């Protein structure tokens, strides 16, 4: 499955059961190596995914490899360890990145 397919599949899964995101209003942007960008917007109990979004200053931006994003989306990656070892770079509040990991775990468990 491609990165885009994984993001849309997870978004569909969350939108079908939004109980864990009802109060979340936040934008996450992913800058991947090799060059690719995605945005995931949580708003009013729904998730939308956008490919090649315009950079938003208020977004929590995660910079990582495409392979590591796959691991994150599958629930097989510890972002805390990744951040401490330089595999993950975060622009914005690191707590938001951890919140994203908690949400993903709810839907991949």
Automatic annotation (TrEMBL):
Pfam families reported in the protein's UniProt record: SCP2
GO cellular component: cytosol
Domain SCP2 per the UniProt entry, residue ranges: 18-105
InterPro entries: SCP2_sterol-bd_dom, SCP2_sterol-bd_dom_sf
Domain of life where this protein originates: Bacteria
Gene3D superfamilies: SCP2 sterol-binding domain (3.30.1050.10)
PANTHER family: SCP2 STEROL-BINDING DOMAIN-CONTAINING PROTEIN 1, STEROL CARRIER PROTEIN 2 SCP-2 FAMILY PROTEIN
Record protein name field: Sterol-binding protein
Organism: Shouchella lehensis G1
Biological classification of the source: Bacteria, Bacillati, Bacillota, Bacilli, Bacillales
């Amino acid at each position: 499955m491609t990165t885009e397919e994984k993001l849309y599949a997870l978004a569909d899964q969350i939108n079908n059961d939004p109980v864990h995101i009802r109060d979340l209003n936040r934008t996450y942007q992913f800058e991947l190596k090799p060059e690719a960008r995605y945005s995931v917007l949580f708003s009013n109990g729904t998730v939308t995914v956008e490919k090649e979004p315009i950079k938003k200053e208020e977004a929590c931006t995660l910079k990582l490899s495409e392979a590591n994003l796959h691991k994150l989306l599958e629930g097989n990656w510890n972002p805390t360890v990744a951040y401490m070892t330089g595999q993950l770079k975060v622009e914005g509040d690191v707590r938001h990145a951890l919140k994203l990991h908690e949400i993903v775990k709810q839907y991949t468990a």
